[in-house]
Design a protein that fits this description.
single chain, 379 residues, two-stranded antiparallel ribbon, 65% helix
């Protein structure tokens, strides 16, 4: 009897990603063609062409990274952390680009780059490497605090420099999930979660009681608009209301691809953060459920790869990528449905954004590389 050892490749995950990319390009064109025609001198495919270019580059990066042993990137973990800090600070220089009142991008040789996307990938690499280096010491109080403190400088810079609260929350969420998986003491996380819920409730309470104060912050205004969007329909609640109108008008089966009304200038940033509402309007509850199922399939494949990864470093890399995509999908859908206050979070692989799709596909390449490290034995 001969034993043959073969490497594993997750074609299910690959096809899932490719399908989401193809679907994303179709729905992006449907969503953005009207606005692009008005803004770009009749070029209705403007957003589609830019997204397609980034998608092609991302797919090339994914396949290249998938064929590089994932341990190769471990040596760049600390460097990636440092580079992400530098890129965030460069936003304050003339290289920084301001869009829609926010300065969150860099102009690199004529190409727009969002440093927060680099920081997400860098944090995954850095924490995966740190978990492996700390070993069992992560179970001590000192080790636990070190793991929690590691992402704080990046989160503080992302929020303080770029005013990008959503990206800071995502980076923090990725870090907490990776620490949670690597640490066996779950009681600490229960206490942290309860403290976070209590703190959030207190903030909401204080903002509601200061509703008529002239010193109410921009974030505070968004929380009030979340609690009662109709009362702020002329200001911060406008986008949320239009998104809810789109979801409600779609019904179960939707109006049909390309037949959305809200994308015709009524819903701001429809091709970005609010694209899920257009999916609901055009494809209905059925289309929205299908998209969610595709993401659930992706999460399941991540779990399969992480559970069977050859070593801890590979498993933590996959957990980090899983956390990134899962948190971003959950928060995006929660914002669109007004489950949480409105904040700019894109839907992975579907929303418009070249930096996002490029780095997401790079992360997928890392996951596929970890998967290739798994060995199947056919007896």
């Amino acid at each position: 009897m001969r034993t043959r050892e073969e490497s594993f490749f997750d074609y299910t995950l690959l096809f899932d990603v490719l399908f989401l990319l193809a679907f994303g390009l179709v729905i992006l064109y449907s969503t953005s063609s009207y606005i692009a025609n008005l803004e770009q001198n009749g070029d209705s495919a403007y957003y589609l062409k830019k997204q397609l270019g980034a998608t092609v580059l991302g797919m090339i990066a994914m396949m290249v990274v998938a064929n590089i042993p994932y341990h190769f990137w471990e040596r760049f973990a600390a460097l990636g952390y440092f580079v992400s800090v530098v890129l965030i600070l460069l936003v304050l220089t003339p290289l920084g680009i301001e869009k829609n009142g926010a300065r969150r991008w860099l102009n690199v040789m004529g190409v727009s780059l969002q440093p927060a996307e680099v920081a997400k990938l860098a944090m995954i690499l850095f924490l995966a490497s740190l978990v492996c280096k700390m070993g069992k010491s992560i179970r001590t109080r000192k080790g636990f605090l070190i793991m929690l403190a590691a992402p704080m400088p990046i989160c503080a810079l992302v929020y303080g420099v770029t005013k990008n609260l959503s990206s800071a929350i995502i980076i923090l969420g990725i870090s907490v999930l990776m620490v949670f998986v690597s640490s066996p003491d779950y009681k600490k996380f229960i206490l942290i979660g309860l403290a976070g819920i209590a703190g959030t409730a207190l903030v909401v309470f204080l903002i509601v009681n200061a509703a008529n104060s002239e010193s109410l912050s921009f974030r505070g205004g968004r929380i009030l608009a979340w609690l009662d969007p109709e009362a702020y329909a002329d200001s911060k609640g406008f986008q949320t209301l239009q998104a809810l109108y789109a979801i409600g008008s779609g019904g179960i089966w939707g109006k049909g691809l390309g037949k959305s009304m809200q994308k015709l200038g009524f819903l701001p940033e429809a091709q970005n953060d609010m694209i899920f509402s257009i999916i609901c309007e055009e494809l209905g509850l059925f289309g929205a459920a299908a998209v969610i199922l595709l993401f659930l399939l992706m999460i399941w494949r991540f779990m399969v790869i992480a559970n069977n990864a050859p070593d801890l470093f590979g498993a933590m890399l996959v957990v980090g990528v899983m956390g990134h995509i899962a948190i971003q999908v959950i928060l995006n859908i929660a914002v669109v449905t007004n489950t949480i206050p409105n904040t700019g979070i894109s839907l992975p692989f579907i929303s418009y954004g070249g930096s996002s799709v490029l780095f997401l596909l790079t992360e997928m390449g890392i996951v596929l590389s970890v998967g290739k490290g798994i060995r199947l034995k056919d007896l």
